[in-house]
Amino acid sequence: MEPVNEVLLLERDETGTIHPRVTTLPLSELPPGEVLVRILRSGINYKDALAVTGKGPIIRRFPMIPGVDLAGEVVASDHPEWRPGDRVLSTGHGVGESRHGGFACYARLPGEWLTPIPESLDAERVMILGTAGLTAMQAVSALEAGGVQPERGEVLVTGGTGGVGGWAVVLLSRLGYRVCVATGRLNHAEHLRQLGAVEVIDRATLTASTKPLEAQRWMGAIDVAGGATLAGVLKQIHHGGTVAACGLADDSTLPTSVFPFILRNVRLQGIDSVMIDAPTRQLAWKRMAQLIPEDVYLRLVDRTVSLTQTPTACLELLAGRVRGRVLVDPFQQ
Question: Residue 87 — φ and ψ, nearest 5°?
Fold first, then answer.
């Protein structure tokens, strides 16, 4: 007997309004791929919240199962690299956007899109990390590639109460950096210090000045906000510093000047965690497994929800009422 594949399905009506509903989808209606995965956990990313609520043009076709992250075990495989029982995860590649994603009990995927779960981790922990952790690890690597070393000065992280920002604080502090966090939610300052921040400042201070340059303060930065926040960060980076841009929580524009780049030799590095190659992914997951202590994972979990509870959790995430990661257990009732 074919297993029941319960899913969260997004449908769009003639007015363009998106309607999420929990239903069942036969495995035969999943897209082609060599590997069938039983999903044990997924996680709600900012992109997922935009998709489920219809607040952003994330979904490329309808109906669609959202969820850009998933982790579980292989049920069946025609791919030489994977066998039933293998523990795998998947992030990116358009899953949950142009191809049915992780808010379901089962997914069928190309074998090349899967990454082995590190031995020291399980499905829950890799989804606590998810795309957010992978993005943060890529951003940290970008700072390292730009010559930003712990002994060269402080680094700044914007949006530390979110998934990417929180993991960036953890990873940087574990690597020996002095981390300052700029946030609009100062009531979470103690939580950020527990993650490894040495200082927490009001994000509004970054946008207070209209000058093209400010006093040099940080050797590097990881920004999830974009817009005026990123422009303010660039004004305060030391000569030769690097900024990794990986989000647009504030705005997708960048109202800045060329002065940080031509007078202070500042590097602005974009971060894409969707289409990176398999070796880069595996290295990032191995580094995270080695760097992050066991007790940190639960600090970055808000809660675990069922498929039925997922739309409400998405609304709460966009409203700023979530601290850390919300996981999805598709088998939870």
Answer: -90, 125
pLDDT of 161: 82
Q: What is the three-class DSSP state of 254?
A: coil
| pTM for this prediction | 0.92
Question: HSE (CB half, 13 Å, CA atoms) of 58?
Answer: 27
**Sequence-distant (≥ 6) Cβ neighbours of residue 110 within 8 angstroms:** 33, 34, 35, 79
Q: Residue 53: which residues within 8 A CB-CB, separation 6 or more?
A: 18, 311, 314, 315, 318
Q: Which residues of the chain have pLDDT under 70?
A: none
Domain locations in the chain as residue ranges:
6-117+293-328, 132-270
pLDDT of residue 106: 98
Q: Domain 6-117+293-328 - what CATH class?
A: alpha beta
Please tell me what DSSP assigns to residue 63: S
Beta strands in 35-97 (DSSP E): 35-44, 69-77, 87-91
| Amino acid at position 166, single letter | G
CA distances from 100 to 30, 91, 96, 153, 172 (A): 7, 12, 5, 44, 34
Strand partners for 270: 245
What class, spelled out in words, does domain 132-270 have in CATH? alpha beta
Strand order in the sheet with 218-223: 197-202, 179-183, 155-158, 218-223, 237-245, 267-270
Do 6-117+293-328 and 132-270 fold alike per CATH?
no
The amino acid at residue 275 is: M
**CA separation for the pair 47, 28 (Å, rounded):** 27
| 203-to-122, 143, 184, 232 alpha-carbon distances in Å | 35, 21, 5, 10
Structure-token pair, residue 303? 């809660």
